[in-house]
Amino acid sequence: MDNSSFAKAFNDAVDICSSRFFAPIPAVWRIKRSLNIGSEKKLKESIKIIDDFAFEIIKSKAKQEQYDWRNQDLLSRFMAKTSSEIEFDDEAKKRKFLRDVIISFILAGKDSTSTALTSFFWLVNGHPHCDRLILNEVTTLDPTFTYDDLKSLNYLHAALSESLRLFPPVPINSRLTVSDDVWPDGTHVLKDWFADYSAYAMGRMEKVWGPDCREFKPERWLHGGDGVFKPSDQFKFPAFIMKTIVVALMREFEIIAVDGGATAEKMMDPPYTLSLLLKMRGVFLVRLKKRRFNPN
């Protein structure tokens, strides 16, 4: 995104919202909000910038020719839905719905992808044999590789899954119950209760992953001796996967972690900080070294 004011406002809004969750006295930020001072005033200003940015995108898209589901971008598909299938009381509510769609996808994809890739390259740097096996796969692809080509990269898929198991971008998730219910195991929950789960904790549970649960072992995702990726139960591993950026970077560069990467000792006390996402503490310093061979 080339709109730096939007990017800064978006980051500020996420950080301020995150700080609300960790505030020891929630009444403090509520008082700030009612008085429109401090961080809450900044949040209000940031939201205004974000809204203006999103509404401008919607306005620009609406000026284009008739949009329908065949367009490749997500906003066009939602706009087509709102025109044909979803009814709104007025145009303002429709615009706010589309704004929420834009913000949701930016929030889901912007920092989560960069956070996941940071953890991945840190882990791979600490496990050179994994780096070699990934590179062996990556260099077999044609420079104009397609989505279907990526499906053949079984070891890379396994390494990404293992990275996401140990360092999920969203470490904790929370839901609010809308009515009384009884879960399949007999647990009773009442309306307005919070139901939380920690993907970070689940990924490090010995009873789920075995005694080597704290180790980075992509091989645990490969089927027997044929090296084919075997997905895990979605409830055991609720995370998403990315490949394209890794392939594009590793084909062209050696990515060398200044701190040496994720050794076994460092993984016992990983350098992370908790906000809405599980980000690496400080910065991840790397050296990029152009590969000397031609992958083709």
Automatic annotation (TrEMBL):
Q: Cofactor(s) for this protein? A: heme
Q: Which UniProt keywords apply?
A: Heme, Iron, Metal-binding, Monooxygenase, Oxidoreductase
Q: Which domain of life is it from?
A: Eukaryota
- Pfam families under this entry? p450
Which PANTHER family does the annotation name? CYTOCHROME P450 (PTHR24296)
Q: Which family does it belong to?
A: Belongs to the cytochrome P450 family.
This chain's protein is named Cytochrome P450 94A1
What is the species listed in this Swiss-Prot or TrEMBL entry? Gossypium hirsutum
Q: Which gene encodes it?
A: LOC121204581
